[in-house]
Amino acid sequence: MVMVAVTWIVPVLVFFVTIFGWQYFVGYRSVKEGMCYVQYMEEALFNCLLQVRLSVTLSTRVRISQYICLHFVSAADCQSNRTWNSLQQHVTSTPSMSVFQGRLKAFLFRPSFP
Question: Which of 10, 13, 43, 61 has its CA 20 to 30 A from that of 19?
Answer without folding.
Answer: 61
